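Review session, final week

We close the course with one last complete record, chosen because it touches almost every idea we covered. It is peptidoglycan glycosyltransferase, a protein from marine sediment metagenome with 169 residues. Go through it on your own first, then we will talk.
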Amino acid sequence: AESLTRKQLKDIKTFIRGVLPPLIIMLVMFLLILNEPDFSTSLIILGISFIMLFIGGTRVIQLYALIVVAIPLGILILLREEYRKARLLSFLDPWKDPLDSGFHIIQSLLALGSGGIFGIGLAESKQKYFYLPDQHTDFIFSIIGEELGFIGTVVIIILFTILLWRDYQ
């Protein structure tokens, strides 16, 4: 983003000379990572690239146009693989298969709900030891909710909001 602002301040407003070169590089990285297959990492690369284009000074209308094209393509890529479709459907209705694909989501909801208002205390989580083996990656918020409760999760969300707000200014 810094090089875009420094070297091509006037060019970034045009699509061909300002947006297309970084877009091609971004798409090559996106497709290489997607080929692994790692859809979530490729989406993160895509998101970071859009943020860099925005910070670099790309016109907002150009970014909106790219997003309008990217969303349907992303949905097609998501639904192309059967396992991705199954993960999405199990997220939408985890009770349909509570012992297999919906197990982690249900246990995550139970962890969040068992925290109550004030939580059960730091390092006192039952779910992270027996029912949520991936709690340190995918389900960290559920464990925070179980240990710190509703109040703790609200404080965490407020702290992240303040961090993002201060970073934006």
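Two points worth writing down before the exam:
The chain has a mean pLDDT of 86.
Residues 160 and 166 are 10 Å apart (CA to CA).
Good luck, everyone.
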